[in-house]
Prior knowledge:
Number of domains: 2
Bound molecules: adenosine-5'-diphosphate
Number of helices: 16
CATH superfamily of the largest domain: Glycogen Phosphorylase B
Shape: globular
Radius of gyration: 23 Å
Low-confidence stretches: 457-464
Structural class: alpha/beta
Largest sheet: 10 strands, mixed
Strand content: 15-25%
Amino acid sequence: MSRLIVVSNRVGPIGDAARAGGLAVALVEALKSSGGIWFGWTGDVIEEADTRLKLESAGPLTLATIDLSADDFDAYYNGFANRSLWPLFHFRTGLVQYDRDNFAGYSRVNAAFAKALLPLVQQDDLIWVHDYHFLLFAEELRKLGCTRPIGHFLHIPFPPRELLTTLPNHEELVKALFAFDILGFQTEHDRDRFFDYVRMEVGGSILGDKARCFNRTVTARAFPIGIDAGTFANFASTDDGQKQFASMRDMLRGRRQIIGVDRLDYTKGLPERFNAFERMLEDHEEHRGEVSLLQVAPPSRTDVSEYQDLRLELEGMAGHINGRFAEFNWTPIRYLNRSFARQALAGLYRASHVGLVTPLRDGMNLVAKEYVAAQDPEDPGVLVLSRFAGAAKQLTDAVIVNPYDVQGMADAMNVALTMPLDERKDRYTKLMKVISEEDIGHWRTSYLEALSSVEHAGVTGGSL
Ligand code: ADP
């Protein structure tokens, strides 16, 4: 069995089940079974550039990390990754800031990380690179002579070619993707948008799941990421989960609750969601004083001004809606800017009658899957899901909404709140089947099977 090297911006956490997300757990599992290295950023920003590796061994796996200088962090992470690629890949061209210096920083970090990893690469290794931070990584490794199979998985959407071409260096980025052997996308729609770009923009050809261009061939497929469904269902019955469930139901005193759990990010459609909740209260007097919205939204990327603006906007909206509808013994919106241990989160999901997951655009959205997995099979809640989340392609038995349609979302909340038990159970059973079959283990093994079956031609840059 080949040894595995995982490359991602953040490394870990490992061995901390309360904090580790499904992805971290899945990657650690993969690394444990084949032995291997998890390589990326330490999470520390230092004044001067210093690309010395920090090695830490944790059983059969090694964590290999490097620091980022303040300038590189600003240009690579806050700049090109989060001000250019993140909004563009989420179809938000209006928010994209492009700056040549930021792209230079992004290239510099990709090159420096590739150079730091190279001495650790052995003859039978497979290299699995994650997400939009490292689109140039394979190109850089190939330049240094690495001929091992290298795969990429994009956790976020891939944009339509008309949007991608607004980025001044779009061709350079896509060309660099052809230095990978396998490109993994969340959905076939994302993969097809990549194919469309290759065909229409740079004159490449597509044959089955292979794209050929720039004298190289890359295999591109959808591998929808899943969650650890069984563990999540069990979390709801751990001490922490039960405690959270009991205290939430106690506090609700027979009233009902809609829950939203998202990083505080403009892709998640939070203002639209608050508007829709307000509309639902306007339309349905019977839900006033009876249904509340719990929105959990821990801040992220606080250095980027759009994220600061969003926080202020949501605080204003929650204040306005509460001022308008609250009663002395009922608060319509409870808005919490903090994170929870995963067990506790499972308890909150289970105590909530509706899960509201309404991003404007999302690669997959794991919260949608977690909400369903945490439900009580005998009395499950209802998932209301945006058609623009990758998860909507699999979870067709959710109540599907258009997050831009405030009235449609308000109506959907009412449908969910009044859904009979039989229909709730029926939808839950169908959703759970997909979520358990296409879980995180399935994602990992199908990706790694594809990567290990790459017959690498041993020439610089992708197989010919
Ligand atoms: P994204 O990757 O864009 O943040 P996802 O929904 O795909 O969106 O994944 C978010 C992950 O972060 C989920 O596993 C979710 O449980 C976790 N998460 C989100 N908010 C919180 C919170 N307040 N506390 C703990 N975990 C959270």
